[in-house]
Design goal:
Layout lengths: L11 H13 L3 H14 L3 H13 L3 H9 L8 H18 L4 H10 L4 H13 L3 H14 L7 H13 L4 H14 L1
Length: about 180
Amino acid sequence: RRLPPDRTQHPRSLLVAVASGLLKQGEAAQAIALLQPAISEQPDDGLLLLLSRALAMDGQFDAAEQVLEAVKDREANKTALSGAKAHIAFLRQAEGMPAREVLEQRVQQDADDSEAVYQLSVVDLASQRHAEALAALLDLFQRDRGYAEGTPHRALLEVFNVLGSDHPLTIEYRRTLYQALY
């Protein structure tokens, strides 16, 4: 009988793929358990960013922010750091909000309830429902630009940071936002 290989011995690309897959499945604790030993052996900015995301998804916001401070090449990872910080901020914000079902009900009862629409979009972002959140934020921006001193516009830009500029949703919604602005 063969023993499973030591997880810390996996090549970096396999480690990233497995940890990313775990995060997509909502298995943040397992991703943390996989990443921490690898990082302690050989710190790597990409792995640190991934660990920060896992910690944030696990509700360990302060630890996630501390891990981001350990990223060495801040200039090369500027966009990724900005996205990670925005992701943590959305997760923190969503923690104190009503349940998704409550917010959906409020929006169904009053589609012009800007606060409920915004809160629902933040809850969706925390649940990685990016398409729904972007659609709601763009609609809110177009309908109520002045809501909370331009919060929908800032939130859209932060979501673009979270997803990255090459993400199909970023490309689509950035174009639509630009058209709405001009």
